[in-house]
Write a structure and sequence with these properties.
globular; about 15% strand; two-stranded antiparallel ribbon; Rossmann fold; 11 strands; alpha/beta
Length: about 425
């Protein structure tokens, strides 16, 4: 009988069991999570912040008016020209106007009442909204300027003078929105017209040659507005002025409360309005003095100066020089145009090829000529109030309602004061 060995019989059948870890330190956690280093593993790369570019062109947003005052512009156009509600029916006329504008044939684009009304429905609202916000922005930023002080601190002695060159419809709407924005309480104190009649559009007190008002109206007027263009905007201006100064018609079933609350957007006495049809580029210095007057004036070119330059750079430069002589001390010159606006001029040294010049360069070349080596120091006639090369943008607020087309607008602004 063999000797029994207990240690041999107690071995496990399938090999020695692993040693117990109860008396050993815990195993360290793996550096990589299981499964993250296999063939399908994709390493995450930290996002790099793009380097900051010095002097990058930044677009400043201009939004200075309340939505209500901006909606007033759209409602005025819609109530004046109900054809906007049938916008698709206007497309053939709008196409003809657009083609004329692209060909710089302004006599055709603004040659008939139908074309001018179609332009007012389609393009004036966006231009008026942009211009009104720029005007309100300037009044808030340039409080020390003589004209801004006269306009904001109106004391019923003299209305603030504005002379707008070109695009009468949008200029009128922009100035009315500015007036409503800047003087809401004073406007509410001026009596309004009580009723509207179908024939009132033909009898509105709108001068077509020069501003002429009665003494009682002059005491209440806050703005003396002169709209100047070579095309006849008097029909559109008269209709828009009627919509602004007469309460909208009500149903014969309207209640007394509705009649009491139905008032015009603007008292007729608050605005002295004149429309001048004159070829601006061929105007005389005496004509400009008569239209601008002896007091500080806000002179505006709202999306029109490029068109003048595209017609003739030489004639536009000569016109700006005459305008400089006619502008009283303290007057402001405001230019708003497209961000890349330029004008082409045939270059005789380049075999008839056209050479483009930026609008900004042409403008300051005429108004702020470079210094010379002459012993006599020439004093500048204008000084820049806005010296900013960055373009700006106006975006349509989502709350605005209009059946026609509206666009966001990028633009450049130039503001000078007469010394």
């Amino acid at each position: 009988m063999t000797k029994f060995k207990r240690s041999a019989q107690s071995q496990p059948k399938h090999g020695k069991p692993p040693s117990s870890g109860a008396s050993k330190a815990p195993v360290a956690a793996p550096i990589h999570r299981p499964g993250w280093t296999g063939p399908s593993y994709i390493r995450k790369v930290a996002k790099k912040t793009p380097p900051t570019v010095k002097n990058a062109s930044l677009t400043e947003q201009i939004q200075s008016l309340s939505v209500d005052h901006q909606q007033l512009i759209l409602d005025t156009v819609r109530n004046t020209f109900p054809a906007v509600d049938e916008f698709n029916a206007l497309k053939p006329v709008l196409r003809a106007v657009r083609e004329a504008l692209e060909q710089k044939d302004y006599c055709t684009a603004f040659g008939t009442e139908d074309f001018i009304e179609a332009y007012t429905i389609r393009w004036c609202p966006s231009r008026a909204l942009t211009s009104a916000n720029v005007l309100a922005w300037i009044c808030s930023e340039m409080g020390e300027a003589a004209w801004v002080q006269q306009f904001l601190h109106h004391d019923r002695q003299k209305p603030a003078k504005i002379a707008c060159f070109g695009r009468g419809g949008s200029d009128l709407l922009a100035c009315v929105a500015l007036l409503k924005h800047s003087h809401p309480s004073k406007i509410g104190q001026i009596p309004r017209l009580e009723s509207s009649s179908p024939d009132a559009t033909r009898t509105d007190n709108v001068s077509t040659t020069a501003s002429h008002v009665e003494p009682d109206d002059k005491d209440s007027a806050m703005i003396d507005l002169n709209l100047i263009d070579r095309h006849d905007w008097s029909g559109v201006i008269t209709k828009l002025h009627h919509t602004l100064t007469y309460p909208p018609p009500l149903s014969k079933y309207a209640t007394a409360k509705a009649h009491a609350a139905n008032v015009s957007a603007l008292p007729s006495q608050a605005l002295n309005l004149a429309v001048n049809q004159i070829n601006i580029l061929e105007s005389e210095s005496s004509d400009l003095r008569a239209m601008i007057g002896p007091d500080p004036t806000l002179i505006t070119f709202l999306f029109t100066l490029q068109e003048f330059y595209s017609t003739s750079i030489a004639n536009t430069t000569a016109f700006l020089l005459r305008l400089t002589l006619a502008a009283p001390k303290g007057s402001l010159l405001l230019v708003v145009d497209g961000p890349g606006a330029d004008a082409a001029l045939s270059d005789s040294s380049s075999k008839g090829e056209e050479k483009s010049y930026p609008l900004e360069w042409l403008l300051y070349r005429a108004l702020l000529p470079p210094s010379t080596d002459s012993e006599e120091e020439v004093q500048p006639a204008w000084v820049k109030l806005i010296n900013d090369g960055h373009e700006k943008e106006y975006k349509i607020p989502a709350a605005l309602r209009y059946p026609g087309s509206l666009e966001n607008t990028k633009f450049q602004v130039h503001l000078l004061e007469r010394l």
